[in-house]
Amino acid sequence: MLDVAAVGDYVDLKLNEDGTGTIIKIRERKNYISRKAPRIKGASFRGERLEQLLAANIDNLIIIGSVKKPAFNNKLLDRILVIAESSSVMPVIVINKIDLDKNKIDSWISLYESIGYRVIKTSVTQKRGFGELYETLTGKTSIVWGASGVGKSSLLNALFPGLNLRVGDISSYSNKGTHTTVTTSMIEVSGGTFVIDTPGIREIDPYGIKKEDLAHYFIDFNPYINDCRFNTCTHHHEPACAVIAAVENGYISCERYESYISILDTVEDDMIY
Ligand SMILES: Nc1nc2c(ncn2[C@@H]2O[C@H](COP(=O)(O)OP(=O)(O)OP(=O)(O)O)[C@@H](O)[C@H]2O)c(=O)[nH]1
Ligand SMILES: [Mg+2]
Ligand SMILES: [Zn+2]
Predict the structure, then answer these.
(1) How many Cβ atoms from other residues are within 10 Å of residue 46's Cβ?
(2) Ligand 1 neighbourhood includes 110 CB (under 6 angstroms)
(3) Of 47, 138, 148, 179, which residue is least crowded by CB atoms under 10 Å?
């Protein structure tokens, strides 16, 4: 178990005389989510990227994307889905800003619903989808995740008046390197309901996944992975691969397969087993 405390951890504290506390024990975690620590910009050292713990004891991983501003990013969504599936956290997909252009997003929504994911459509400006999202969060601990500017803080503010999280100005999505939310914080919004707002992410690499296991976390691949000729198949180049056949026959979407290949590359690059 990683021995640094994260948002959501239960800890035993020793109270000091000056009123501060010292963590003496982190209690066992039900689950946790982590990623590979981001590369340090400009660093020449290409060392091992360590595991960075993001939050512990989570019920829902709310993955927020937007229709526009910024454009819907299916690759980022698929990476976060892999993290949810591999850490036993329930993923819920939220597509925000449906006021901007609803039609463009419909085929993506159908794809993820057909895989079996729950998709909630929301608009902060038109107050849509609030009831469904509110119900999902009630009584649970939920972390919201997604690119900068998709409206994570805006949605939480809209659902829980009084929260007063900082929200970016209209141009904040344009990736000028500024994030409106800069720290991960957990807030009890009502008895037993906790939400964790996070800074926007641009890229994310799942940590600790072996390349032969990656396909397990693409749940739409599951019906096929046992039919490959080789049981160590990584569904990349191997002959008689049932996953590749399913892509060719239209049973698995090309976009999901492309995401799989791009994650497989990062797993191959950095992990040696
Ligand atoms: N049209 C429209 N704009 C929205 C909606 N939700 C949020 N916005 C706007 O999008 C911008 C970014 O919102 P934030 O809530 O700061 O986004 P965030 O995901 O928390 O961004 P970071 O904290 O940087 O990760 C703000 O200008 C919001 O007013 C929506 O449903 N429709
Ligand atoms: Mg924010
Ligand atoms: Zn295969």
Answers:
(1) 9
(2) no
(3) 47
